[in-house]
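Chain A, query sequence.
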Amino acid sequence: MAKLFITLASLGGMLAVAFGAFGAHALRDRLDEYSLRVFETAVQYHFYHSLALLAVGVIALSQPHTVMLKSAGWLFTLGILVFSGSLYLLALTGTKWLGAITPLGGLAFIAGWACLAAVGWKLLV
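Chain A, predicted structure.
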């Protein structure tokens, strides 16, 4: 599990940096201000949760069979795909209905943090 989540975190961070650079350079003159802000929000949350995935992977080195930790990792991954993915597509295509999907990714992020908090609580007790 540690290997998987550290790898996913690393790939996620790499993509977040690449998408951020793409947005800052290639999209600056192509998107309106609103769409550029939406794209930047997608990059920020993508990056934050790639780091959260890295934390999951590092904790998994010493707690490899923790169901809640595995759940946190998959919820962060799902959140990146749904939250950031829908915002990337919204910014690039202008397809407004994608905004209705975004909160589902946000819920995945919240649930992932709750699972990680439960793991932390069990580690400290």
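Helices lie at 2-25, 33-60, 67-93, 102-124. Residues 2-124 form one domain.
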